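Action item from last meeting closed. Structure (105 res):
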């Protein structure tokens, strides 16, 4: 069986930075250790392969002005108002859409 590939994507909080502000390639180490341990408990003979998305620098390099923030907040509030009036977009019984369409195996 081929190795399971796992993509690690950290949340907000500068996980890619270390004390002096330089790049930190070891932020995913604790994640990988925990996942490898879980794989070994499940008797999976092939250790997983890990990759990660590095996007902190993309945000650091992007200059966003106040107008863009205001526009985003306006879109969010418009969506809140719309869905408060019109109700949720999803069917009331979401899983009923998939009944009989998901094949096993």
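Sequence:
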């Amino acid at each position: 069986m081929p190795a399971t590939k796992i993509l690690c994507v950290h949340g907000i909080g500068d996980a890619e930075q270390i004390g002096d502000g330089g790049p930190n390639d070891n932020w995913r180490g604790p994640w990988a250790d925990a996942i490898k341990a879980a794989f070994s408990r499940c008797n999976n003979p092939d250790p997983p392969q890990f990759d990660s998305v590095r996007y902190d620098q993309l945000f650091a390099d992007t200059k966003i002005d106040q107008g863009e923030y205001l526009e985003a907040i306006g879109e969010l509030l418009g969506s809140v108002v719309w869905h408060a009036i019109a109700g949720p977009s999803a069917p009331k019984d979401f899983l009923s859409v998939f009944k009989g369409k998901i094949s096993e195996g």
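Note appended to the action item: Strands lie at 5-8, 49-52.
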